[in-house]
Amino acid sequence: MKKFAIILLGLILVMAGCGTKNNSSSSTTTKTIKVGTTTSEVPTWTLIQKLAKKKNINIKIVRFDDYVQPNLALNDGEIDINAFQTVVYFDDFIKQRNLKLSAIGTTNIWPMGIYSKKYKKVSQIKDGDQIVIPKDPTNLGRALLLLQKAGLITVKKGFTGKGGLENIASNPKHLKITAVDAAQTPRGMDDAAAAVINCDMAINAGLSPVNDSIFREDASNKAYINIIAARTKDKNDKTLQEIVKIYHSKEVTDFIKKHYKGAAVPVVKPVSYLKDYKQN
């Protein structure tokens, strides 16, 4: 009996030891998160990747070269979050595709600009010149509003920023406005008088949004704030929320200001801040 008691006690101690090891292991488990983003955002996410390791988060960066695949990949479970798009583009995209995705954090505003190899000022654009703009509905509308602010066209009263070229009310210089894939707009500068280019596409093409654009948006429109998106079922996931906190940290915002030199403007706001945005 005494021998049995000793053996039993030994088994209990071994089992207790195993239990302690499992708890300790689970408390330091590293979670891997795949982030889909575009080339211009990779430097920021490389820093976040480094900072996240301290929180036992292993970030894998998946680069995309267009504005369609990152949302489809997220919806299909190929990545866990993405960061590349404005809230107005995101809302329109998920509505059109019926995707169950949600914005979980803000990142930056990347002002859209007008670029030209032929002219130094918007006022130099001539009658009949060709202007290339992105063709997806939200960025097309955004481009038309920018051309209006530049004094080149006017849009119809009540235009909300969504829709096609039919929303142009007047075109006094008879500009030939051509809509192409956003990724192709920088190439449009070779043949057209000017091109309206999204900030990240301009950076990818080796352009400086601050120095090379001949006209830019201001950085105050909520509709053009970029967001971090996740699958709706994961929007409250603690690991994903921790990544948003890291993005909003002083170390990351200071890096964005220094690295992008005004091309990107950090927005440290909760998602609720975006509720009443208007595209104008």
UniProtKB/TrEMBL annotation:
SUPFAM superfamilies reported in the protein's UniProt record: Periplasmic binding protein-like II
Gene3D superfamilies: Periplasmic binding protein-like II
GO cellular component: membrane
Domain of life according to the entry: Bacteria
PROSITE patterns (alphabetical): PROKAR_LIPOPROTEIN
Signal peptide: 1-20
Protein's membrane topology: Lipid-anchor
Keywords: Lipoprotein, Membrane, Palmitate, Signal
Assigned protein family: Belongs to the nlpA lipoprotein family.
Name of the featured protein: Lipoprotein
Source organism of the structure: Weizmannia acidilactici
